[in-house]
Design a protein that fits this description.
Length: about 400
DNA sequence: AAGCAGAGGTAAGGTCTC
DNA sequence: CCAAGAGACCTTACCTCT
């Protein structure tokens, strides 16, 4: 989907069409003030709120990053994952809106259902992206897939008012690269024979799976393009990147990928993490940290219960003020989805980590998930005394913090 | 009795993606 | 000076069991 989070907001506020808009800002809830009548009498129709009333990036204070930028904002060099403060320097006049997850999820479900109605073999790749295997869809081969791609684009536009970009190719690896060629609202077909002409000139970073680190390392080895990667000796690549990654890199450079489009999968872990408004000290801000910690455990437990999972590996994640990260985990004898059990186990993990530096982030994770039979859970059942304590912790007895 | 290989689990850190 | 949140997967190390 093209600039998905921003495009969803533009549906609500069409007067922002064509303007630089960024979505982001971390924990801030939807800005209801925008919807209030200036005189306090009821709500305004979002479609007619004057552009001048929208909050600007230059007025933003906080630690968030940009989630999505409209194409107009991208002209200024603003993009995903950029710090808000940096973005504000590049484009101070950009309008900034918080993420409305419920709305995003609604449109995510809508566009995915539109696709599966046409082509049922679809793999989720997050909220705004999917893989589709339309090998066996009637008409899927016409014009190399262009006809079906157009049909899907039209269907999504009719159902949601949103545009997307589609890449069609013999496998997922090439289709993903193809989808970048004609953004936004484009279609690109890449055939096997196009490898040298269309793929090899690209930077290695365009391969899905080669990120900043591998990109840097390849550059240091004198390899910039996918073509240059393709002519390397696989053994040599394996020497530098490990057996599996090296072999994969070589295959990817040759456009080879036989991974299937997987329509169903089970989650492996669930987590909650939060970056604080300001860096907190384990001793001085103990009470505040303890509340946050307990809340994270509570929220993970709710997520598990709501989705029907339990896990036996409980983990924590800390990020210090110098941005270094530490994780600790502990595996229980039996899976749990109980907030107090998670809180207690995570508390034990916390004792194994240095707490001399200030913290900027704290996270709680539950892994090794299973779909539990109701009666096999440890610490499950009616709300226990321990659960009640996790929900309303006594700061004097809560372990650590 | 000692040593070793392989499997499988746990733990810690890192990389990558949307 | 700036750097979110959630999740998957990989590597390495270490341990236990067979």
């Amino acid at each position: 989907m093209d600039a998905f989070f921003a495009s969803v907001e533009l549906l609500r506020y069409p007067q922002l069409q064509g303007l630089p808009v960024v979505i982001g800002g971390g924990r801030r809830k939807a800005d209801d003030a925008l919807l209030q009548q200036p005189d306090g009498s009821g709500l305004r129709d979002p479609r007619f709120i004057p552009v001048a009333d929208f909050p600007r990036l230059k007025d933003y204070v906080g630690r968030g990053v940009i989630t999505t930028a409209t194409y107009a904002a991208r002209q200024f060099g603003v993009g995903s994952a950029m710090g808000m403060m940096k973005a504000a320097r590049l484009c101070p006049q950009a309008i900034v809106l918080p993420v409305d997850f419920d709305e995003v999820r609604k449109y995510s479900r809508l566009f995915k259902r539109t696709i599966t109605d046409i082509a049922p073999v679809m793999q989720d790749r997050g909220v705004d992206e999917v893989y589709i295997d339309f090998t066996d869809v009637p008409g899927g081969q016409r014009e190399g897939g262009r006809v079906l791609a157009r049909l899907i684009q039209k269907g999504i536009l009719d159902a949601t008012g949103l545009t997307c970009s589609i890449g069609v190719a013999p496998n997922r690896l090439l289709a993903k690269m193809a989808s970048e060629f004609n953004k936004p609202n484009g279609i690109s077909i890449v055939y096997e024979e196009d490898l040298q002409a269309k793929i090899w000139p690209l930077n290695v970073r365009k391969i899905n799976g080669i990120g900043p680190k591998a990109g840097e390392k390849l550059a240091a080895l004198g390899i910039q393009t996918i073509g240059e990667l393709a002519v390397q000796d696989p053994q040599w690549l394996m020497g530098h990147f490990g057996k599996s990654t090296g072999a994969w890199m070589h295959r990817a450079a040759w456009g080879r990928d036989d991974s299937p489009v997987v329509t169903e999968s089970e989650p492996v872990s669930m987590s909650r993490e939060t970056t604080f408004e300001r860096d907190l000290h384990a001793v001085r801000d103990k009470a505040e940290l303890s509340l946050i910690f307990t809340d994270l455990c509570q929220r993970v437990a709710e997520d598990l219960q709501r989705k029907g999972y339990a896990g036996k590996t409980i983990g924590i994640k800390l990020r210090y003020d110098d941005f270094k990260t530490a994780t600790r985990d502990h595996t229980l004898p039996a899976p749990t989805q109980d907030a107090a059990t998670i809180r207690h186990t995570a508390g034990l993990c916390l004792k194994r980590v240095p707490l001399d530096k200030r913290l900027r982030l704290l996270g709680v994770r539950v892994g090794a998930l299973v779909r539990p039979s109701e009666h096999l859970l440890s610490g499950d059942g009616p709300v226990s005394a321990a659960t009640r304590q996790a929900r309303h912790p006594d700061p004097h007895t809560a372990p650590l913090f």
